[in-house]
Amino acid sequence: MIRELHEQLKSGAITSVGLTEEYLKRIEEHDGDIQAFLSVTREEALAAAKAVDEKIARGEEIDLLEGIPGALKDNISLAGVRTTAGSLILDNYIAPYDATVVEKLRNRGAVILGKTNMDEFAMGSSTESSAYQKTKNPKDLSRVPGGSSGGSAAAVAGGMAVWSLGSDTGGSIRQPAAFCGIVGLKPTYGRVSRSGLIAMASSLDQIGPFGNSVEDVAIVFSRIAGHDRLDATTAEAAPDKPFENYLSGGIKGLRIGIPKEYFSADLDPGIKKLAEEALEKFRTLGAETVEISLPQSASALPVYYIIMPAEVSSNLARFDGIRYGMRVNDAKEREAGNSTLLETYLDTRGYGFGTEVKRRIMLGTYTLSAGYYDTYYGKAQKVRALIKADFEKAFESVDLIFSPTTSETAFPLGAKSADPIKMYLSDIFTVPANLAGVPAISFPIGEESGLPVGGQLMGKWFDEETLLRAAHAFETSA
Q1: Which member of 92, 142, 281, 442 lies 3.0 to 4.6 Å from 177 by CB, making a disulfide possible if both were Cys?
Q2: Number of structural domains the chain divides into
Q3: Is the per-residue pLDDT at 330 higher than 70?
């Protein structure tokens, strides 16, 4: 889609202003039902589009993404624009600077339509824990779009943005991509800068793109990847690269691992059937499928729910009602003796954080406390190393690993709101990639009872080229 729009812009068949106005109109007409956007940056988007049209009129070359409208998850800083991370505690926060990914996108002339809804501080799998609204799945408005990047996925699936960015800590790009029937990529940890991303769990978070096709995702990914001096975790060995140029060539001879732990008897029969059909298609395209074992997979979810809350409790300590964000008690009340500084902290965090955020802060603080650190957090880190070792061993004999993205299709709104354990199980197939730091992509493999089903490919560290090429081969095959 991006390439076609690019050619139309170059030929003069369309203008960037006209294209941007069309997408703004779609937001106006459809987002009342879907509720994907928290804010729409209309004037800024049109100004950026006008600059692209003027550049084309001067006969200058434009980038593939230049003049193409997209959206940002609301935990990615956009200078001068309200950035809430879906939380009441940041209700009045205006980002003073652009995230590195935004700066890179602006440098390429991309048009940003606005900020999308998300689970509060990216904690959730349904986009129902946002302090502002509940996003609906464009494929079925009675169902969730997935989370935590549900707004970004719904914006693309609902035709209100050509591309979008989300963040993935335990599956928050891939799961909503699967639920909404689009493509979502979680890059290798360290491939994309996290500077300007409101942190949830710093050793797990990674920014990545959504698109209607693998090529669209590759185009956006190419423009946000690379080393950043503002993020010490970005890899020096991650040069800027046009990943969209590595999609051709087929997959003949590739070895795709099938982890037996992901295809247990508990897997939904409909999803299992589609996954097996997807594997048969890969074989038809020339790939070889090999059964492998990832024995520590059963430990991935409990390990994740120890490490992630521990990092959450540390990262969210900065939201105290003093430095930025909302404040329940102000200085005048303290001067009058009506409120102490500690009460300001407690009242602000008590009012500003939602139930799920409080749950994870308390869990994380407990696991890091004296007497429990080694028992829980220390042991979880050791098992995390074993999970990574499983992937290292597997990749000695295979090039990619395939599984369903999720164990179910999009569930009804409110179905899991009262049961956090059921909600956490939504990430059962996606969490291992974050713990190991490997890249992973979700792409449509069919429908079950009229709802999209996603397939997941996981690749070797910093080998997004093979990952994208295999997903593209599947997508474009007859």
Answers
A1: 442
A2: 1
A3: no
